[in-house]
Automatic annotation (TrEMBL):
The gene is Cenpp. It comes from the Eukaryota. The keyword Transmembrane helix does not apply. GO terms for biological process: CENP-A containing chromatin assembly. This is CENPP protein. One of its GO terms (cellular component) is chromosome, centromeric region.
Length: 190
């Protein structure tokens, strides 16, 4: 009987090793997909988003120009969602305070990164000088779906305290991708 039990476990181990190999290949393929975007395409998307952020648009654009610009922005957003794995579900913005050179806006955002859902709430303080615009994130609150491990909860808490959205998005993207791989692997143990 012990040999039969050992054989069952060895077969299960072999199946898991094959799945790990397939998941590793799938991951390497997805990493290669991200290299299909040229540096020029990435820079064009970044420049387009920066222009939009800095408000360089003119108020007297024709409807066809606006439609073309909207199409360009949708393409940029699609590129960024494929590149990061983050799918935005909703966003709301409310202006809290606006003076001559200072604007405070409250943002609420909900999104998915692979299979992990999260919500963000923060205030964006914009200070305008003659030459530039500086933006600072304050009061960042990050809510993740319950049931995540304690290391992720600690990281989310730290990112919220420091107001570091860029680090949060980068880390979440990587974590969520590997979370999916782990979830698929451990389904065999159930």
């Amino acid at each position: 009987m012990d040999k039969n039990i050992c054989q069952v476990y060895e077969d299960e181990i072999q199946l898991l090793e094959e799945e790990i190999k397939l998941l590793t290949e799938k991951y390497e393929d997805s990493q290669q997909e991200s290299t299909f975007f040229s540096d020029e395409e990435i820079l064009m998307s970044i420049n387009s988003l920066q222009k939009e952020f800095q408000g360089e648009s003119k108020g007297n654009e024709s409807p066809s120009d606006l439609k073309a610009r909207l199409g360009s922005l949708e393409t940029d957003l699609s590129f960024l969602m494929k590149f990061t794995g983050i799918q935005f579900r909703s966003h709301s913005k409310q202006t809290v305070e606006k003076t001559g050179n200072r604007t405070v806006q409250k943002h609420r955002l909900s999104a998915n990164c692979h299979s992990l859902s999260f919500q963000l709430e923060f205030q964006l303080l914009e200070m305008r000088n003659k030459e530039s615009v500086s933006a600072v994130i304050t009061d960042l609150n990050i809510v993740m779906a319950s049931g995540e491990n304690s290391d992720m909860r600690k990281f989310v808490s730290s990112a919220g305290e420091h107001g570091n959205l860029l680090t949060f998005f980068r880390s979440l993207s990587s974590y969520a991708e590997w979370y999916e791989h782990r979830r698929c692997t451990f389904l065999h143990f159930k």
